[in-house]
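User: My advisor, Dr. K., asked me to get a structural model of this assembly before our group meeting. I'm new to this, so sorry if the format is off. These are the inputs:
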Amino acid sequence: MRLSRWLADRWVMIVALLVLGYLALPILVVAALSFNRPSSRLSYDFNEFTLDNWRQPCATSDMCDAVVRSVQIGFLATVVATVLGTLMAFALVRHRFRGRSGINVLIFLPMATPELVMGTSLLALFVSAGVPQGFWTILIAHVMFCVSFVVVTVKARLAGMDRRLEEAAMDLYANEWQTFRRITLPLVLPGIVAAALLAFSLSFDDFIITNFNAGTTVTFPMYVWGAAQRGIPPQVNVIGTAMFAVALLLVGLSSLRGRRARRANLLAGPPGHLRRSS
Amino acid sequence: MTGMARETPAGDLRLANLTKRFGVFTAVDDLSLTIEQGSFFALLGASGCGKTTTLRMIAGLEEPTTGQVLLGDRDIARLRPYKRPVNTVFQSYALFPHLSIFENVAFGLRRRGIRSVDDEVTRMLSLVQLDGYGNRRPAQLSGGQQQRVALARALINRPQVLLLDEPLGALDLKLRRQMQIELKRIQIEVGITFVHVTHDQEEAMTMADTVAVMNAGRIEQLGAPADIYEFPATAFVANFLGQSNLLAGEATGAGGGDVAVTAHGTRFSVPAGRSRADHGPVHLGVRPEKLILVGSADQVPQGHQHVTGVVTDASYVGVSTQYLLRTGWGTEVSVFAANSGASERVPVGSEAVAYWDPRHAFLLPRDAADTDRTSPVLDEPVGAPS
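Assistant: The format is fine. Below is the predicted structure of the whole assembly, which you can bring to the meeting.
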């Protein structure tokens, strides 16, 4: 009786914790294995605790090269896709032109197409055009599928923005550029940042499309895939855990900043503090 | 449109043959009017009548299809909004959510390259009674406070004309009354021309020196609130600004200072000075509060005119009692009797007589197909059968 009541009050919480555990378990395994000294190359048992993997993450030098390459490609693809995608989102939301609704549909195409299909067709394109596969073809492919996500993310933010804010700025003596710089950009920026983070993570872990267009270049996901055949070095887990930690840190920082800003706003009251910016 | 109208004093705002079309829809139709410098001008109309479009053309947020917007002698109709000495208080305030109240108010000054803004912003915030709120964000303020920030943000630039687009629409009734008085006080204090757009006739009459009643992209009537109310120019104005009882009749010509009217078989007369037509189909109009309800025709004083009927409804609304009197021909006339204790209440179902002083009546030209109009009509059917 009392137990059923206790359960009735808390079952949602219990289910939530179970789901959370389900989500976190693989990550915990990766984290644990990053401190493992495997007994043999193909063994995934937890054998012995060690910090060696963390002390020498680049013990297998191919892997670190692959990580560096993936970060380079991810960074470049993010920058290019974010700039192009943001411009495109502005065009689609702010301007009426012929073919606009067609483009709105086409934007979803790279998201809807199976990666396998996109990878092979890109390969066919590069081969027939005589473009040698490698770093640059990977970059072109990544920019292509990232742009869609950037456009959709920025568009949503932009569509939700009140046009009257820009009208108000123009009414208050801001010319077109100042209006963009002072009002539009700051208000759309959260959407652009979100889009950039999404683009980076998409690029960093893409395997299928990359694998078709990489030539002899090896990215981190491709390295892991190749290594899995002959036994994954424990350092892979170190990279995985480190990536996870960085992501967690970013999320934590942004939520902390949000809370601090809210707190500061609530406490702000008496005059005296006059901010200057120009 | 004589030679005199050519000269515009330096600070007057003049709209000349202003037209705005959106595709086939004409939002503003050949509008011409002059707004005197330093006056409080209200554009009054139902939604969709073109009043906001007119305001946006003055602000520069909409380009006129044809026509001029003259500030003094300068045509500003094609200038970008940031090149005009005009500022706007937007309907939803449009405060910048990412900037503090201080920065919101300072925005216009900073864009014009003014470095030291602290004193001016502080002075403005205290004008709108928001001292000490500079560090907050717009979202932390109530609707009334946001409204005042929007006002301060516009006024700090000392525009030649301040435009207000339904600025009090989002506030509750009590706060709205308070802000009406506040706005009027500020307008007198700063002496800037205010052009106020509203659909609330009471708001327009309370605040404005001059009211323009707009309908379907045109101005139906322009004048001081009392003049428009007491002697409306059209049936639309008569019922948009307060209520009117409009009886359909035929004017049979002027004589001896009066215009004779026959309506529903009864003869009435209206002073020539209060008649906008002296022959043909007319509306004889009387405001409900100008009607006095008595028990029988014997009680009607000399020189007054009356209609008889049966009281079908009496609503007690505190300051007055509002009666509906069904006349012999079936139209319900509304009568407001002040609850001043001077008259007795008339029970529903009893016969009664409503009388009025002819000097309080007015005569308007009428479309031949138009019938009696006795309640406020906003979207009236055209040419309803009689």
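One thing worth pointing out at the meeting: The interface with chain A takes residues 59-61, 80-82, 86-88, 90, 92, 94-98, 100, 102-103, 107-108, 110-112, 115, 118, 121-122, 131-132, 134-137, 140, 153-154, 157 of chain B (CB under 8 Å).

User: Perfect, thanks a lot.
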